[in-house]
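Please review this one:
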Amino acid sequence: MENKVTQAGQGEAVISIKGLYKSFGDLEVLRGIDLEVFKGENVVVLGRSGSGKSVLIKIISGLLLPDEGTVKVLGKDVEKLSEKEMRALRMKIGFSFQSSALYDSMNVRENLEFPLTRTNRTLRKKEVDMVVEETLDAVGLSDKINQMPSDLSGGQRKRIGIARTLMLKPEIMLYDEPTAGLDPITCVEINNLINEVQERYKTSAIIITHDLSCAKATGDRVAMLLEGKFTRIGSFDEVFDTDENQAKEFYNYNFIQ
């Protein structure tokens, strides 16, 4: 397994997080974290289950409010946006759910059509068909256009979920555990797809995972989230080329050779 070749450089920050805190009752989940995601880069947020990774992307997308700190997305302070402004911002953010979140009663074509026709009712059927077919081609599943979600494998459902997110041409992608529950070969396919999406759609992304193979394959930078704080941020090798016990334990636990 090789490191991803980093292509994105520092420049415009599309996500900027400063001094972020979030608790639920007495449970401190995020304890003063800072992070910037630059235009065109994939940043992996790596941590154990329950470490606050999913809470972070829910705050970024405005689904949760922080207790303290600021989160700016595409230059907008998320906490200060009106409901209408937040809806407009979310149109520029693609959210790939761990469960894929497909509608079981709709076939693949209908699942992909749904976000497009809901947001733009003036599109003609020919235009919708063209976008659906182009997006399915981008994820390598053109032949599944009339299949039901129940007829797809786990990896295929994950791909269709990403395709549906891409229908609105988002500027930012948020991936929540994209390889969870998949076999090793399918994990490699999903990792490759994440990189292809970055290249083809010029997206910036946060990838939430505890899978080191995914982190190494997709991350331009890796941010290790432990006990509510980012303990190390850098390339995969920079994060794990250390004698620091927590990083070594995490690496060894994942059995990366």
Summary: The longest strand covers residues 13-24. The CA atoms of residues 40 and 202 lie 6 Å apart. The radius of gyration is 18 Å. The mean pLDDT is 90.
